[in-house]
Amino acid sequence: MGTYNKGILGAFSGKVGTVVGANWRGKDVMRSLPKKTGRIATDKQEMQRLRFRTVANFLHDLRPVMGRYYGIAMGDKSKNNLATSYHMKEALVQIDDSVEILLNRVQITRGVLLGLQTPAVAAEAGGILKFSWTDNSGQGTAKATDRLLVAVYDPITDKFETMEKAALRSALSASVTLPAPFVGSQVHCWASFVSEDDKLYSTSVYLGEIEAV
User: Fold this and answer.
1) Can you give the pTM of this predicted structure?
2) Nearest-CA neighbor of 100 among 160, 57, 161, 37?
3) N or C terminus of the chain: which is more exposed, having fewer CB within 10 Å?
4) pLDDT digits (tens, 9 = 90+) for 141-182
5) On the CB side of 186, how many CA atoms lie within 13 Å of its CA?
């Protein structure tokens, strides 16, 4: 892959002859077309592809959140790259020829801000989940104005619902109304805090499974 600076026809994208033009991280790049190969992937290669595909599909709905609140981007590793790497290494289990996500090891956000203290979640009629915690404002960098971020996963629809401003840390509780398709499902919940200026965020905590009623 090579970069180029405004050729005689300017920047381009797509296939032209034997090369492909694209914009990657703000740079115009060209790469040659991949060569066709008749080689059959090994079992190990197929498993790695399955692992990557499973994680990528599972995290799809979370990309916007993780792109802002997961770790610290370094070099060519974006926050979404870091999230994918973590989940492939720490949140997958292989069962025979398949893989499964370990939901209790999933992280929605990852940072240094103090997270929820004694968190809990309860279901209420109408597809409402009530999250609660104790106020630990003033400990470390935790502030009363930190915002609660909530993520709820429904295995039936294979979808996430995220709420980035569910409440302030000082509120001690938050009620979240789930989408209608989530009602009746055993949903999984995570929560974390994000600072008012968006610069600090905590590592999310898994609150377990609960039936949405």
Assistant:
1) 0.81
2) 57
3) N
4) 999 999 999 999 999 999 999 999 999 999 999 999 999 999
5) 3
Q: Report helix, strand or coil for 44.
A: helix
DSSP per residue over 51-102, as a string? HHHHHHHHHGGGHHHHHHHBS--BTTB-HHHHHHHHHHHHSEEEETTEEEE-
Gap between the Cα atoms of 175 and 185, Å rounded: 18
The first and second tokens of residue 5, run together, are 């600076």
E strands, the chain, in order = 2-3, 14-16, 19-24, 27-32, 92-95, 98-101, 117-124, 128-134, 147-154, 159-163, 173-177, 186-194, 205-211
Q: Is 30 exposed, middle or buried (0-12, 13-18, 19+ CB in 10 A)?
A: middle
Confidence of residue 5 (pLDDT cuts 50, 70, 90): low
Q: CA–CA separation, 199 vs 111, rounded Å?
A: 10
Confidence band, pLDDT 50/70/90 cuts, at residue 96: confident
For each of the domains in the chain, give its residue range(s) and CATH number, in order of start: 2-32 (no CATH), 43-105 (no CATH), 117-211 (2.60.40.10)
Is the predicted pLDDT of residue 3 greater than 60, yes or no?
no
Where residue 21 falls among pLDDT bands split at 50, 70, 90?
low
